[in-house]
Amino acid sequence: MTRPHGKELHPGYLGAYTSLLAEVSATGRLLRRVELDTLRDLGEHAAEAGHTLRDLIGLCLAETRRCLPALPGVSHAAGPTERVRTGDAVLAAVEAAVAAFGEGHERAQRLAVRQEEAERREFIDDLLYGRSDPGRLAERATRFGLRLGRSHAVAVAVGDGPGFDEIHPLVRRIERELLGRFGEHDVLITTKDGRLVCVAGAGDEAMLEAFGAVVQHPGAGYRGARRVAFGRGHAGPGGVVRSYEEALGALETADRLAIAEPVLRAAELLVFPVLMRDREAMADLVRDVLGPLTQARGGAEPLLETLRVCAASGYVNAEAARRLGLSVRTLSYRLDRIKALTGHDPSEPLQRFTLETAALGARLLGWPDQEI
């Protein structure tokens, strides 16, 4: 905490501290619990007022030194033995007072940190879910380094096993890397629901690319993320929510379609939201085109996998057979079965497109494992 401008600690700030030393000097007693609590409160109030612990302890020692010659049992009128005994008692009191000041000061700082963390988490929730007034949200955003008047894009990373949280070492690693390279301007690194999230200006493609690179390859001693998805850039506070949802949608689509690529871009996956915009129509297509495949020996799944691999290999039968671990003859038999059951020929471009679209819809809808 910083010291308030123009405010300096003065001796009166310590209250009855010097009187307490005088009593200790006269009696040799230890500080009582209520007295220590008062000193702790004083340390807490000093922190809340913006005074450093160094300033507070410095004032305490300065006041001790100033009043020490006049304390009973320490003056030259006292004998050597009495001065030693009294000096030990005074030093013990000063030690206890300094410790109490420190405890109170640290207590206030811990509370301030918790409040800051709670406010930051509330802001992040409002930012990513769009639950706050846009004007108020933009005003709060400046405190956390974002200028919501600009366009922003969001990148989301997921890992294997336990998710990421704010104290995860990879979060600190990424913050050091990005802030060291790009400075603290228009970027927010955080976590949400076990995922790593980076919000950055849509014009700062280099920063988002750096986030993706570091989160996947953070270096020795860190376990990188399994996959990272990039939403498109959008303007205003609502743009952050939209980009975040696009990144989450890309991750969900990749999981459903078993897409192996570690880097996903929402702009390259727009066809899938389009396909699912009319879910009922897609379900009808899947049932009408692919429903007959359930009559095949072994069910529909092997034939659906055949369609997927053939499409991925450009309908080069030798390559598709290799990927499936089949002979070319067996692959040809499967394609013939698909044609016979569905009435759509994979070798005909338009019918092939219908089959591929239906197959994508099936994977998005979880068919045939789930009823549609």
UniProtKB/TrEMBL annotation:
Source organism superkingdom: Bacteria
Residue stretches making up the CdaR GGDEF-like domain: 130-252
Transmembrane intervals: none
Protein name as it appears in the record: PucR family transcriptional regulator
UniProt lineage: Bacteria, Bacillati, Actinomycetota, Actinomycetes, Kitasatosporales
Similarity field: Belongs to the CdaR family.
Domain PucR C-terminal helix-turn-helix: 303-358
Pfam assignment, any one: GGDEF_2
Protein's organism: Streptomyces smaragdinus
